[in-house]
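User: Structure please.
Assistant: Input sequence and predicted structure:
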Amino acid sequence: MADTYEKLLEDTIEISAPAEQVWSLVTDIPAMAKWSPQVVKSSVKGGVVKQGATFSNLNKQGLKRWPTGGKVVRFQPPTATTPGEFAFRIRENRTVWSFELEPTADGRTRLTERRETPEGISGVSMLLTKVVLGGQKPFTAELRRGIRQTLERIKAEAEAGA
């Protein structure tokens, strides 16, 4: 049986902070290691996060470590009345990770994190996930837990600064 993957992973959280404040957190790629349990370190080439910016990550699972590279593919800051979106594509596996920020009428933010696979997942990544990272099903469960943990950590930081 083929090791299949889920095309979309997503979760949403409500944050008691304005969307502009949450935007400053989710677009801070070097700070992502504070929120994502899979990220050890990230650095942006040129230091500025914007449309087209590239960056490198060091990821982890237990004692395992692996590098990835990303490129910002959507960079639309929110306004008081319109959603914002920040998305990046990971070179090695072709997945697109995104944060959508929806301002609410009461000044809060609805934050959704997604992992999408518009071009599928690369064969090399499928093989490495199967052989090194425990297979698609357990790795996907780990990613789902990581998305939730990332959202909860961003919420805590945003609300502490609100």
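The helical segments are 19-26, 32-35, 123-131, 136-161.
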